[in-house]
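Re: weekly structure request thread

Next one in the queue (659 aa):
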Amino acid sequence: MFTKNQFFFFFFLLFLKLSASSDDDFIFNGFSGANLNREGVASITSDGLLQLTNRTQNKKGYGFYPSPLQFKSSSGKVLSFSSTFVFGILPEVPYLGGNGIVFVISKTTDFSDATASQFFGLFNDRNNGNATNHVFGVELDTVLNPEFQDINNNHVGIDINSLDSYNSTSAGYYDDSSGSFQNLTLISNKEMQVWVDFDGEKNELNVTLSPIGMTKPKKPLLSSIVDLSSLMLDEMYVGFSSTNGGFHTSHYVLGWSFKMNGEARALDYTKLPKLPVISTKGISKAFAIWLPISVVLFILLIISAIVMIRRRRKFAELLEDWELQYGPHRFSYKDLYKSTKGFKEKELLGAGGFGKVYKGVLPNSKLEVAVKKVSHESRQGMKQFVAEIVSIGQLRHRNLVQLLGYCRRRGELLLVYDFMPNGSLDKFLYDGAQPTLNWAQRFRIIKGVASGLLYLHEDWEQVVVHRDIKASNVLLDSELNGRLGDFGLARLYDHGTDPQTTHIVGTMGYLAPELSRTGKATTATDVFAFGAFLLEVVCGRRPVELNLDLEEQLLIGWVLMSWQRGHILETRDVSLGDEYCDYEVELVELVLKLGLLCSNPMAAARPSMRQVVQYLEGDLALPELPAGYVSCATPSPSEGFDKSFCSSVSSLSSLSGGR
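Done, posted below.
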């Protein structure tokens, strides 16, 4: 028999257990007054929306249930769980969102070391893929990141300790009546619902997606057998993570339901808050009434319009019928003029042979942009040139500067790019006013540019040859990630076809020797320029410096001679210092040798960009440079840059195993 005190103690323990179990089943039909653990820029709006990110670039936002939940039984078996939530993604610029939302189960809510942008605020480039992360996620991804093997820029994926998804598929749902697949666009400004169901007995995970208001589709979007026993700890946190990358995007969760060992309760759609909308003003009713009944007002309106046109003559643009098809890719000159404060000198970011670049803030969206003014003549080829610009504007990669659109006015062509706050890489290499980049930062930039160039050469629907790869055309975002920019020299052609012969363009020191003979810019000539870029970043000096001793004037030749003498590491930038771990020394030497490999005078012996990325990632061993390798890739400055020379070339075919 229990004593009175024992009975009350037993009742108290039972009460605590029942109270704790209530945490295993919760529902939020809107988040007004909700007790959530919010971090980063996450907030709860006055309407009850959980806003994970606002329209600030490269920010992280988290919303977690405040108490950890029990995810394992006393025997160590992973318990079943079920969750459903309604979300909405609102990009400031239509169809340019980033990066998406992740439903997260994690051992911790502290992600202070995680990187924003493509890492969703969950990992960084050092711990992505580590088994010690203990992070499970279902990602709603709106940006294509080839480094994570993303299938496209609109997909749902299952993540296990890594953003290299365990399984993924395009966003959509299966219609119950026909069984057909229906596409959904995650950044369509519309509410959508997700169901995540895990069966602990079968180790079966199902993820289902649909527009809001539909009955849950019978066939899940993703269904996978997943062993979570090593990932799940006894207690884990559940919630959401989001980052908006370089594009101004707001990510919202409208409602959320969760349950352990059972099916999550259905959300009440009538109680969910509404996504914010941008209303447009209709035509004035007064104007509609006055116009047909007042000739005088009509005349006054005509006169006013004439006066206004005269006052705005400076905003006159070239607009031909064929340009109407490009729609949102065309900006008005008036908006660009206002955004740059009249193209004033204090807004000037830089100038080069192809024009001046100004910083601007678009008047309506407040989006920061870079506006490049290029001189042009109205000619027959302009239609094709603008078509190429619009095509390039469809490129989507985190290591490319986004080309947002264009404007034509009189003798000017204005190109509008995403703004990069840290400017170009060459300023960090050569401008003493900028802080010195350490090796880890330089190596990350190198890998980023390589990834972007691989996307241009092989992973997009057309081959894009950049034709002017150099440090001044690599821009750095707020996190010092490298982005390849300035596509003013780029040319498009279909996969499997030869590019048309054109006049030689590019920059001295980066030009492949075959250009002077054929005039053809190819992916191989891009690889040659990338090789010069690698040496430039590691050595901290330009490819050609005429003020040095003769044997050091050409960077490629100087590094080559140092390698032949067994002192290749002595060519590295002295500002990097001498404090390296063995791993970093190996990477420095690898990049220097890879620079020589890409600078091979024989185009067929250069590696492809896919091989280059594999070398940098350590997935492919770098071949040894042959003892007889002699660079004839860059001519002597005294010879000029319209012809090439070579003293000797031998054993070159083994350099990269061909292309």
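Residues 425-639 form a domain with the Transferase(Phosphotransferase); domain 1 fold (CATH 1.10.510.10). The first strand starts at residue 25 and ends at 28.
Next request, please.
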